[in-house]
């Protein structure tokens, strides 16, 4: 088989932002009170001569803080450090987040842990607060950080911090690796108990991109000036992350560094949200979930080599867990993803991926999987333009598919796949992209 | 991002056999007594004008029979039919296997089940034995079989059956879909209790290939003239399949039709192997496992778009299950597979895939994963030419990798990755291939 590699080229994290992505980059925003942010150039990665790679967020007062970390057994030093910090501080007394891109500080042993602590301590000293800095890193793994260079630039990052849209944009840019556009959103909201107070939330994230020789890392920072109590922070963040950053698939690989953090400083005033049974909590939880999902979708929009944005909705499921596993299995299947790239209405592959989502691993006894009943299963495409759905499988029976209509739907960049299981009333939604030649180019060819 | 699709071409199941694969196709063989096989042309798939697509195996006497089927919840009609047959017959009284390619008879409802039964019954009538035929199908899903055409050709398949190498080669060819070469091996062996008797085993398989709009299907038929009792057949086959056909990964998708069947007719005589505690059983189990693994490796050699044959060995593991899950996770990772295609010694991605192999799914609490201890983990490349191993990670610490040596090793078609966990004495071996531009072309572009 002849492979003519030279035909393929992919843009690898280079500026400028591609024309098609400009619509995802805001020109203004409303940012939470009391937070100052910056993104400055250090040159963490050899060869980086200008891209900002050190990001700092500080609050002018103490914050409640929580984070969701990767479950990968090989956890990077900043993950270990930050997890311990939040435990020790019982989710209170957080002032800063310091992040470097260009080097993941992963698989770096005791020295790496010292480096992470050093980044935090240097930030703490500037801010004037002990044990109050969350640390994140993304980039190459297995190499020690150029730590002196980084800590030498932290005062500069602190000095340049501010609260304007431009500051937030620099902050967002500094955590990017091979992302083709910075990912920043902000929003205003109110809480039922203080209808007269206007709260703000802002968030940045970076997506599935990699630099040789390392892996995709997802980092997220969410900041709000609403008064959320430390005690409810972990629960509200976990709820939101499960339905946003944990509901997207680029390639199914989970990195050593994945971290999503939420800081709430209460600078806008009002009554503290301290009970999970309150209307305020409920409102904030829904707001945070939707906000996180909107941010997470940008990662999918920027998936490596992606040409499609695909929503997978699994409904009428016996349990939410079953719905999620089925959605994840469809989102992860290389056969489904290449069919989407090829604009092929291949419901057989969708069904197949659903059918093996809940089965026991090879070598284990067959399990029953009551969550799926073939005769009750329905699969449809929902067109992005609001036109009628295209039924592919109805109660386990294949429909005679209008191929012309299917092609029309698959020509659009956005697509929704709905799987109706007919075995309950639970549901889930998952976002994914396709697998293209460019994905292989970006992840396979960059060293050749 | 510009994608210039026209640059890529992939051979889709067309003859002739690629030059590089000819070494995997035997010119002769030693076949088990009492079995006759054939492969004839029916034209199951519209557009197929000459490729044999109906395969028949019959035994001149009753066989013990067993099969391992897909666990996919959407099971094809021939899977449902054959599973029930083997249950009803308690693994005894089997005479034939009838297989069509070009249509999977999957998601075809009650009519599809009737078609599978009709194929079996027509075969039974020719052979002169009731309820004795295993049925398999592979190809397009969601479409009814051209059943009349198929049953009309079964007498011809029976008529053409024979026991020569050419007959076995036709039998192997007739089950292929997008395979680039037929997969057939045969071997002689003896059992301890009858050292004077020469037994034979032969097997055919087909691999991970797909025709629009359907999915990869793995079919295997193993036949021996050794006298294996029906009672021990399921156990011996399961042992072998777990360590062969269940230890290979092309893309991680498990089809609706996967079936591996073993028939033993005892035609060579000797003492029946009826106890799992006997030396004969032990010998046969090891023979069958190695034989199956050799056949399974051909599927990896013929993986769609594959340019590399990769052995993943996970050793010093706490449990065999943990070793297998870790090997599967590495084999399935698109990041690992694209790095292998790019000839990149990316141990970070290997480590990453190991690190998330055993973690709980998103939304579930963190589990401990005692099977992996970062400081005890070692990763090496074993060169295919027998030269010294290249250590990438030693006791959790990255080695200074000689990139030139790494490139040398990765230039070879064959590669072995060894992961030493240091947490026990269990091990596993898994075979996989890389992800290339051609994989995307074959699975994404064929309809455009």
From TrEMBL, chains A, B:
Biological processes, Gene Ontology terms: L-arginine biosynthetic process; ornithine biosynthetic process
Catalytic residues, chain numbering: 217 (nucleophile)
Biochemical pathway: Amino-acid biosynthesis; L-arginine biosynthesis; L-ornithine and N-acetyl-L-glutamate from L-glutamate and N(2)-acetyl-L-ornithine (cyclic): step 1/1; Amino-acid biosynthesis; L-arginine biosynthesis; N(2)-acetyl-L-ornithine from L-glutamate: step 1/4
Site residues (Involved in the stabilization of negative charge on the oxyanion by the formation of the oxyanion hole), renumbered to this chain: 138-139
Cellular location(s): Mitochondrion matrix
Site (described: Cleavage): 216-217
Family annotation (Pfam families): ArgJ
Catalysed reactions listed for this entry: L-glutamate + acetyl-CoA = N-acetyl-L-glutamate + CoA + H(+); N(2)-acetyl-L-ornithine + L-glutamate = N-acetyl-L-glutamate + L-ornithine
Entry superkingdom: Eukaryota
A GO cellular component annotation in the UniProt record: mitochondrial matrix
Keywords on record: Acyltransferase, Amino-acid biosynthesis, Arginine biosynthesis, Autocatalytic cleavage, Mitochondrion, Multifunctional enzyme, Transferase
InterPro entries: Arg_biosynth_ArgJ, ArgJ-like_dom_sf, ArgJ_beta_C
GO function terms (MF aspect): L-glutamate N-acetyltransferase activity; L-glutamate N-acetyltransferase activity, acting on acetyl-L-ornithine as donor
Coiled-coil boundaries: none
Post-translational modification: The alpha and beta chains are autoproteolytically processed from a single precursor protein within the mitochondrion.
Binding site for substrate: 177, 206, 217, 304, 443, 448
Enzyme Commission number(s): 2.3.1.35, 2.3.1.1
Major site of localization recorded for this protein: mitochondrion
Family: Belongs to the ArgJ family.
Binding partners and assembly: Heterodimer of an alpha and a beta chain.
Primary role: Catalyzes two activities which are involved in the cyclic version of arginine biosynthesis: the synthesis of acetylglutamate from glutamate and acetyl-CoA, and of ornithine by transacetylation between acetylornithine and glutamate.
Protein name listed in UniProt: Arginine biosynthesis bifunctional protein ArgJ, mitochondrial
Organism taxonomic ancestry: Eukaryota, Fungi, Dikarya, Ascomycota, Pezizomycotina
């Amino acid at each position: 088989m002849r492979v003519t590699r030279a035909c393929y080229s992919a843009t690898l994290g280079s500026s400028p932002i591609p024309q098609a992505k400009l619509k995802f980059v805001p020109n203004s925003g409303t940012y939470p009170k009391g937070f100052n942010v910056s993104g400055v150039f250090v040159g963490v990665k050899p060869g980086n001569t200008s891209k900002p790679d050190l990001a700092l967020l500080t609050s002018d007062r103490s914050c409640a803080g929580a984070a969701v970390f990767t479950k990968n057994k090989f956890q990077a030093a900043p993950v270990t450090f930050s997890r311990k910090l939040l435990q020790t501080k019982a989710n209170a007394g957080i002032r800063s987040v310091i992040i470097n891109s260009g080097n993941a500080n992963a698989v770096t042993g005791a020295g790496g842990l010292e480096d992470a602590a050093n980044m935090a301590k240097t930030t703490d000293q500037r801010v004037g607060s002990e044990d109050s800095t969350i640390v994140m890193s993304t980039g190459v793994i297995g190499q020690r950080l150029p730590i002196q260079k980084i800590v030498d630039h932290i005062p500069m990052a602190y000095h340049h911090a501010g609260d304007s849209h431009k500051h937030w944009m620099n902050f967002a840019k500094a955590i990017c690796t091979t992302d083709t556009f910075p990912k920043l959103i902000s929003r205003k909201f109110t809480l039922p108990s203080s209808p007269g107070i206007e709260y703000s939330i802002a968030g940045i994230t970076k997506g599935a991109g990699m630099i040789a020789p390392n892996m995709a890392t997802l980092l997220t920072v969410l900041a709000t000036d609403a008064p959320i109590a430390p005690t409810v922070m972990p629960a509200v963040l976990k709820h939101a992350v499960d339905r946003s950053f944990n509901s997207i698939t680029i390639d199914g690989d989970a990195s050593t560094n994945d971290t999503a953090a939420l800081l709430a400083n209460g600078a806008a005033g009002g009554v503290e949200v301290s009970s999970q049974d309150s209307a305020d909590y409920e409102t904030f939880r829904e707001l945070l979930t939707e906000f996180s999902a909107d941010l997470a979708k940008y990662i999918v929009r920027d998936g490596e080599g992606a040409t499609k944005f695909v929503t997978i909705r699994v409904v009428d499921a016996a349990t939410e867990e079953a719905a999620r596993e089925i959605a994840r299995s469809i989102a992860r299947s290389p056969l489904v993803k290449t069919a989407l790239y090829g604009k092929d209405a291949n419901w057989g592959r969708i069904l197949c991926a659903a059918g093996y989502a809940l089965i026991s691993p090879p070598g284990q006894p067959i399990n029953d999987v009551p969550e799926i009943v073939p005769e009750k299963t329905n699969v449809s495409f929902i067109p992005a333009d609001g036109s009628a759905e295209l039924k592919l499988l109805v109660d386990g029976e294949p429909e005679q598919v209008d191929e012309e209509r299917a092609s029309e739907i698959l020509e659009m960049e956005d697509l929704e796949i709905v799987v109706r299981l007919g075995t309950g009333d639970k549901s889930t939604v998952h976002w994914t992209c396709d697998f293209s030649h460019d994905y292989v180019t970006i992840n396979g060819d960059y060293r050749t």
